[in-house]
Amino acid sequence: MIVVENLVGGKFVTTDEAFDDISPLDNSIIAKIPRTKSADDAVFAAKHAFGEWSQLTIEQRCDWLDKIADTLESNIDEVARLESLDTGKPFDVALNVDASRSVNNFRFFAEYGRSLKSEKFEMSDATNYVMRKPIGIVGLISPWNLPLYLLSWKIAPALLMGNVVIAKPSEITPLTAHFLGRLCTEIGLPGGVLNILNGYGPEIGQAIVEHPEIKAISFTGGTSTGKIVAATAAPMFKKLSLELGGKNASLVLDDADLDVAVPGVLRASFLNSGQICLCGSRVLVHSSIYDEFMSMYLEALKDFEIGPVINMQHREKVLSYIELAKQEGGEILAGGNVPSKEGAWIEPTVIAGLSHESRTATEEIFGPVVTIHKFETDEEAIEIANCTQYGLAGSVWSKERGRTVAEKIESGMVWVNTWLHRDLRVPFGGVKDSGVGREGGMWSIGFFSEAVNICVMED
Ligand code: NDP
């Protein structure tokens, strides 16, 4: 049994109350998690650490990020094992998606920090010097689907820019954040620079967002939680980054190369059991290639390995959408059932015959459930892609018209003939109810710093 503790001021501490961390593989108890309700001690420790950390040069902080990347990399199998245990995802996915990207997040921002140039704007009679000052204490809140991947994506740029961090992983998946905390103390990261608090979102998550001395909140999670976070933080004029839900479309145009599109769309449908905010949970297929595409897609699905969903409660939510789909007139082409074994398993499910405006096809399910829709023209495909409240991502599969169609999709990111192909320098984030702000490269640097302009008049 793992005992998760909070990391506060470089020390591991626990609370009077604890609750269980349950494995989605078989519903066994795998860890005890502290139920933290106050962020005060972490704020005190972070404040104490801020002075020295913010005074380091950016090169020194880049060296720290590299050290964190090194220690994570040396322990990459253990990171993957813990992530797989906590989320139920196959070890290979945990290793190749979660653990390796967590290493890369620190490595990327270390290199990026070294490449930052001073920003200067000359006028005929004066020069403007732009400084990037740290904000102070920042609160980082992350979900359960890609636990360390998403948390490290925030921790690395926050530390790089001289901030001190109070991080809160999801109560459902705290193991890898705890492990990161252990590794950081082992390599001697100064106490208080990275603090990790565990507990329930409405308690410790809310306490972090409410705390007046925490000056910025970077949040990734569901749209309804994002609304609460925004409503709490906005009156205090905190800097706020919100990466929220999605209902992304994969558009397969009539000129798509099906040998590329079928495996690509399938991966976008079901990687991580469909529990990635970027997953393409609506597949739009041109009528002229519909039969051929569907027969290849359903055949390839038979060999696609997925893990369970995150827990029994989430499985109930996903199953309720499969029931809803049937009531809305959907035809289950594959899956729809619960395998007869312990744990939060659901077969990957493909549903056709629904209106693109149905609830099943417009609300975020966040599980291994995909709806299929036929279209006749590019314009119709674009209209269907844009008909939800969300606008996070999408993909277009076409030999000739991919980019033209992609430009008309209302979302923050669109891939053409690929999916989840990431360059960490580019903006990542959504429009509409999928969020506010962008992460990645310069966007993360901008969020985690205060840009100050100093205009010097020439003699
Ligand atoms: P939630 O919104 O339930 O939780 C996200 C985080 O917020 C968790 O750490 C949670 O804690 C915490 N939290 C809950 N209530 C509060 C509160 N009142 N104040 C502060 N923090 C709070 O999302 P899920 O964990 O269920 O994750 C799935 C969602 O995340 C999906 O909607 C998905 O689309 C979205 N997501 C978006 C991404 C993006 O980049 N746009 C990427 C990945 C996921 P606890 O777990 O303890 O309740």
In short:
With 459 residues, this protein is of the alpha/beta class. It is 40% helix and 23% strand.
Which molecules are bound in this entry?
NADPH dihydro-nicotinamide-adenine-dinucleotide phosphate
Helix tally equals 15
- pLDDT under 50 segments (min length 5)? none
**CATH class assignment of the largest domain:** Alpha Beta
- Biggest sheet: strand arrangement: 15-16-17-14-13-19-20
The CATH superfamily of the largest domain is known as Aldehyde Dehydrogenase, Chain A, domain 1
- Secondary structure: number of strands: 23
Specify the structural class.
Answer: alpha/beta
CATH topology of the largest domain: Aldehyde Dehydrogenase, Chain A, domain 1
Q: State the CATH architecture of the largest domain.
A: 3-Layer(aba) Sandwich
Task: Write up what this structure looks like.
- The chain is of the alpha/beta class.
- It has 2 domains: 2-244 and 434-457, Aldehyde Dehydrogenase, Chain A, domain 1 (3-Layer(aba) Sandwich), CATH 3.40.605; 248-423, Aldehyde Dehydrogenase, Chain A, domain 2 (3-Layer(aba) Sandwich).
- The chain is built from 15 helices and 23 strands.
- The chain has helices at 40-55, 58-74, 76-87, 91-115, 147-160, 175-186, 201-210, 223-233, 258-270, 290-301, 312-327, 359-362, 378-385, 402-406, 441-447; strands at 2-3, 6-8, 11-13, 18-22, 29-34, 119-122, 126-134, 137-141, 164-168, 194-196, 214-220, 239-243, 248-252, 280-286, 331-334, 349-352, 369-375, 390-391, 394-397, 415-416, 431-432, 435-436, 449-457.
- Strands 15-16-17-14-13-19-20 form a 7-stranded mixed beta sheet, sandwiched between helices.
- Helix 9 (258-270) packs across helix 10.
- The radius of gyration is 23 Å and the shape is globular.
- NADPH dihydro-nicotinamide-adenine-dinucleotide phosphate (NDP) binds next to helix 7 and helix 8.
